[in-house]
UniProtKB/TrEMBL annotation:
PANTHER family: PITUITARY TUMOR-TRANSFORMING GENE PROTEIN-BINDING FACTOR, PROTEIN CBG20567. It comes from Dermatophagoides farinae. It comes from the Eukaryota. Keywords: Membrane, Signal, Transmembrane, Transmembrane helix. InterPro entries: PTTG1IP. One of its GO terms (biological process) is protein import into nucleus. The chain crosses the membrane at residues 86-116. Residues 1-28 form the signal peptide. This is Uncharacterized protein. One of its GO terms (cellular component) is cytoplasm. The keyword DNA repair does not apply.
Length: 172
């Protein structure tokens, strides 16, 4: 069975490889791209390359070096349905959530999880001890009751040793 560190390290490695591949495809500098040749429509611009965005104010396709101030709220990246500012906001929120969840997972796996498992084990040990104690008390009470019955039978001559000479007979 794999321990938490192995699972956590493999997950972190896969996430790192994915993020590096996404970053490489988004900002690689292999060759000059000419976004301004795709000014015909928003769809043509955003589908040409990930490094291009479409400015709806002047209907131009630009290379993503930095956002123009005039196109800040009316530009499109990757799709013409959502503006680039919404994309950036969604990516920041998504990255923040992934980071927070990763930190929580690391804290849980490293700190809280083992403490909870030790607590559960102590609790189970207590319950087993209480169960054994109750069973011992039950057996002791059964033994005392049997002694009292045997003493009563001996006192009144109702012993089971000699069944033929016993004064005690069951009704049928």
């Amino acid at each position: 069975m794999m321990n938490n560190w192995t699972i956590l390290s493999r997950s972190a490695l896969i996430l790192t490889i994915f993020l590096l591949a996404a970053t490489k495809s988004a900002v690689s500098n292999d060759g000059d791209i000419e976004c301004n040749l795709h000014n015909s429509s928003c769809e043509a611009c955003v589908k040409y390359d990930l490094r291009c965005y479409y400015c709806a104010n002047d209907n131009q396709c630009y290379r993503w070096i930095g956002m123009n101030d005039e196109c800040k709220h009316n530009s499109y990246w990757r799709t013409c349905k959502l503006s680039a500012s919404i994309w950036i906001t969604l990516l920041v929120i998504l990255f923040s959530l992934v980071t927070i969840l990763s930190v929580i997972l690391i804290i849980w796996c490293c700190c809280i999880g083992p403490c909870c498992r030790r607590f559960q084990q102590r609790q189970l040990n207590r319950w087993d001890g209480a169960r054994r104690s109750m069973m011992n008390m039950h057996q002791e009470r059964q033994r005392l009751r049997q002694q009292q019955r045997d003493h009563f039978r001996a006192k009144h001559g109702l012993t089971n040793n000699d069944t033929t000479s016993s004064k005690y007979t069951r009704f049928s």
